[in-house]
Specification:
With 394 residues, the protein is an alpha/beta fold. It is built from 14 helices and 13 strands. The chain has a seven-stranded mixed β-sheet with strand order 2-8-7-6-5-3-4, sandwiched between helices.
Length: 394
Amino acid sequence: MTSIPQDTSGEPNPLRALTLDRLRRRTSMKWRTYPEDVLPVWVAEMDVPLAEPVVRAVTDALALGDTGYPAGTAYAEALAGFAEKRWGWDGLAVERTRIVPDVMLGVVEMLRLVTGAGDAVVVNPPVYPPFFQFVEHMDRRVVEAPLGADLRIDLGALEDAFRRAVAGGRRAAYLLCSPHNPTGTVHTADELAAVAALAERYGVRVVADEIHAPVVAAGANFVPYLSVPGAESGLSLMSASKAWNLAGLKAALAVAGPESAADLARLPEEVGHGPSHVGVIAHTAALRDGTGWLDALLAGLDDNRRLLADLLVEHLPAIGYRPAEATYLAWLDCRALGLGDDPAGVFLERGRVAVSPGIDFGTGGVGHVRLNLATSPSVIAEAVRRMGVGSEEM
C-alpha cells in the first residue's frame, strides 16, 4: 500500500495556540475531574482550537437550525476519500458502512452481531481500559493475548488465545486496537495479514478499533485492517473524533468487509439515531477539509515526542520511553523508579500531575503510566518537572 505524503499547508501548530489559563476555562472531563492545582495530561482530549473548517461547518449548521436527525452518506464518502488519499486504500465501500454513536458503542454493536452472551472476546493488553469494561458489561468473556516484550502483537499468544476462545465450539471475536492504545504501535501489513489468517483458521471474527488511524508519526504508515488479504470478514470502527478533538460531537462509522456486509445489515435501525447530526457534519468537514490542520498537528506531535524524550533524560532518566508510531499518547515504564504498582497515584499526590494509571490497561500495565502529548511544549515540560519532583520525594 502506497504511503501518501502529508500536506505541507503551512498552518500553525495548534498545540501552541492556547494558554493554560484559557484551557482551564473548559468544562470537559480533562479539566474538571481534578482540582485546579493538578496539571491534567491524562484522558485523550487535545489542548487545541478546533480546525477552522469544522468550526465553520458547525456554525453554519447552527445558524441554519440544521440540528435534527442524521441522514445520508456524506460522512462515509468523506472517510472513503480520506482513506484513498491518506492511506492509498480505495476499498472503503460507502454501501458497506453505517453511522454509529461513537467507536466504543459501535464496537459493542459489532460484537453483538458476531457473538452471543458468554462468548469470548480476545484483547491485547496492555490496552484501552474500556475494552475490558464494555466487553464484560455486555456479558462476554475477556480472553487476553498480551503484547510481546517489543509491544507488538505476539502471534503465538494470539493463536493460543483464539484456541481457548473457541473451545467447545463457541463463537469468538478479536477486538483489535489499531493503532494500539496505549503503546502507539502501528501494526504492519504483514502482521495484520497474519492476524487475518489466524482468525480464518479458528473462525474468530475480527472487530478493529481504528479510531487513532489518522494520528501517525512521520515515517509510520497506517494500514487499514480491511485492506489486507484475508480480512474480508472483518468489521472496523473509524471516526474523526481523536484526530480532530471531536469526542463531544458524537459520531463514528462502522465499516464492513465484503464478507461481513450481511452482518452489518442486521444492525438495528435505531442505532443510527444515536449519533449527533451536528457531530456528523463536524466529522465530515474534518475529513474533507481539515487535512491541513491535521498535518500541522502531526508535525507538532512529532516535536512533542522528541521533547518528551529529552525531558525524561534530564529529569527522569530511569523511565523507559519509546516514542510511539501513532496516537498522541506516551506509554512510560516507571518500574525502575520504585514507586510501586501505581506510579500515577504518586505523581498525582506528590507532583500534582494527572496521568493515566497503567494498571487500568490490564496485563503489562503495572508500574506504567500513560501521558497525553497533545498539549503545549510548556505543559509537557511542567508535567515532567512535577513528576520528577514527585518521584524524588518518595
